[in-house]
Amino acid sequence: MNIMKIMANKVTKVMGNKGNQIEILHGIDLQTSSGEFLSIIGPSGSGKTTLLKCLSGLVQPTSGTVKIDNQLLNNISERKIAKLRRTKISYIFQSYNLLPALSAFDNIVLPLRLSRQRINKTKIYQLMNSLNFKADLKQLPAELSGGEQQKVAIARALTMKAEIIFADEPTGALDSTSRQIIFDQLRQLADSGVCIVMVTHDIGQAAQTDRALVLNDGQVMAEVNHPTEPLLISAMNETKKAII
Ligand SMILES: Nc1ncnc2c1ncn2[C@@H]1O[C@H](COP(=O)(O)OP(=O)(O)OP(=O)(O)O)[C@@H](O)[C@H]1O
Ligand SMILES: [Mg+2]
User: Fold this and answer.
1) Where do the coiled-coil regions begin and end (predicted)?
2) Ligand 1 pocket mutation pick from 11, 48, 58, 236 by most atoms within 8 angstroms of CB
3) Nearest-angstrom CA–CA distance, 26 and 220
4) What string of DSSP letters covers 95-113?
5) Mutation test of ligand 1: which of 11, 13, 14, 15 has the most ligand atoms closer than 8 Å to its C-beta?
């Protein structure tokens, strides 16, 4: 049975300084359950990252509500949100968010250390092999290429057995082979019951998810169940027409 994992109601987000404020999200409703692979597509600046941050509790919406496992995230204490991140949620950042002073290996195992879980070094080396990671795990993030840093960020999220994975363009810096390898890992996790919400520019990848939302200018313009590339392209074209 699929269990409801995320429920967002009328989420808005206003950003900017006093006197120069803009509403970036205009009342977004979204629900997703365990085992579902949801993708969010849309042009640059449409609010995808902001939405993902609101859904995961990294950022508080200006109005509206977000619930994870029926727990309201609005005004949740720092302690509770930290616990949620240690136990249930993984977030793959668009900008990787690796700690510069820690080696690649130490970055990967950081969530395990924080939650006092056992670290299986062999498993981590196997995972990195399967991700086609060729660099040395003792290196610092600054000594790695963008794609290698992205793989470290992905591995950090995958080693933690999260129930929900938020992934913000997780394969943007990768070649097509690595992109497919990582996508397949996420697909397998969804098939084993993990709820995945992935932002992507890649229509081909979105077409392999269970449902796609087309975001434009802070609004969900279309929702495509069992998406295919032609369905997504036509949904995006309709969206453009609606805006012109
Ligand atoms: N802290 C902030 N202050 C003011 N405006 C912001 C802030 N963060 C984001 N924005 C604006 O909000 C809009 C949406 O940004 P967001 O990063 O969510 O877009 P995105 O869809 O993820 O774009 P991309 O595909 O380029 O990653 C943009 O116009 C951006 O300039
Ligand atoms: Mg973004």
Assistant:
1) none
2) 48
3) 9
4) T----TTS-HHHHHHHHHH
5) 15
**Is the distance from CB of 35 to CB of 195 less than 8 angstroms?**
yes
The answer to whether the beta carbons of residues 82 and 57 sit under 8 Å apart is no
Give residue limits of the domains in the chain: 34-52+77-243
- Ligand located closest to 93 CA: 2
43 alpha carbon, closest ligand: 1
Backbone φ, ψ for residue 204 (5° rounding): -60, -40
CA distances from 75 to 6, 56, 141 (A): 17, 13, 34
Residue 196 backbone dihedrals phi, psi, to 5 degrees: -120, 130
**Tens-digit pLDDT profile for residues 142-173:** 999 999 999 999 999 999 889 999 999 999 88
Residue 200 CA, ligand 2 centroid: distance in Å = 9
CA 15 to chain centre: 21
Strand (E) or helix (H) holding 68: strand 63-68
Q: Domain 34-52+77-243 - what CATH class? A: alpha beta
Cα–Cα distance, 217 to 44 (Å, whole number): 9
Question: Do β-strands 219-225 and 89-92 pair in parallel, antiparallel, or remain unpaired?
Answer: unpaired
**Ligand 1 and 200: CB distance under 6 A:** no
pLDDT in tens, 54-94: 999 999 999 999 999 999 998 888 899 888 888 899 999 99
DSSP annotation of 77: -
CB 217 within 8 A of CB 47: yes
Indicate the pairing of strand 164-168 with strand 63-68.
unpaired
